[in-house]
Amino acid sequence: MTSNTANDRVAQIAAHLEAVGSSMKDQVCIVTGAGSLYGIGRATVYALAKRGPKVIYATDLTLESLEGLTKDVESKYPGVQCICRAVNAAKTESVTAIIDEAVNTFGRLDVFFANAGVATGDPLLSEDEESFMRMMSINALSAFLACRYAGPAMKITGKGGKERSGGSIICTASVAGIRSGAGSPEYSASKAAVINLCQTSAFQYAGTDIRVNAICPGLIETGMTKGTFDYARARGSAHKIGQLNPTRRYGLPFEIANVVAFLASEEASYVNGQAIAVDGGLSASHPIVPGKFH
Predict the structure, then answer these.
(1) What does the alpha-carbon distance between residue 268 and residue 223 come to, in Å, rounded to a whole number?
(2) Nearest CA to 168 among 124, 201, 194, 121?
(3) What pTM, to 2 d.p., does this model score?
(4) Rounded to whole angstroms, how far apart are CA atoms 46 and 30?
(5) What DSSP line would sit under 66-108, residue for residue?
(6) Residues 6+ apart with CB under 8 A from 230
(7) Which of 46, 77, 149, 187 is an active site residue?
(8) In Å, what is the CA distance from 120 to each residue of 4, 45, 117, 169?
(9) Low-confidence residues of the chain, pLDDT below 50?
């Protein structure tokens, strides 16, 4: 790219961002793993809706609880269309079908939040080939499919009011994918794969203004972590949950969702190929003896 071409592109982006501000007007979004009543996906649908996109596809394996979500979103945010669909985020035909529906119906795709995932607390010697590959399929393959198929759709222009290539792919990873100590070996490996997929995909889409980032939650109270919280409360030790991070508490789904919505928006137009930890500071330090070095 010549310096003049680079300067022209920067000027074009600056003018565009000045015009749109923090709005997501006209944008089309897809969220996977939105079915859990207490999940990050569901919270993100609301966080995106606040920014006023044209449409949000709220998806999960089944429609259970999604229809109520879409009605509530449309009631609270007039002008935002929320559509629920059953999507298997780890199957090519299912992922391509929802992307094709978005593009064929609305002419564009701007945001894909690959949030579908599962977790276990199994130790290494309790895992086997079957459990490992199931984890990799649901967590890592789903992220791959999002990166592989959402990107080309985000390049499509001339329809739905989209004048330039661009978009944001965000995948849910975990602090467990950054280093040991926050999940089972198979879960941690799958989330490390998600992080690397986002980093390498960002370079695969170089020059297209398609950004790919991973969000790395710490301990968040969701349907997936309900067992941990219920166990602690039953033992009377709920006050200890999250005490290992410097914020000294656990997190809530909307605290992750707000960061996802930022990454989805053009306010994050220069954030690309990153693994962003939202964990109260847990991943910022090696283990330390309480009272030392601070």
Answers:
(1) 29
(2) 201
(3) 0.89
(4) 13
(5) HHHHHHHHHHHSTT-EEEEEE--TT-HHHHHHHHHHHHHHHS-
(6) none
(7) 187
(8) 52, 25, 11, 25
(9) none
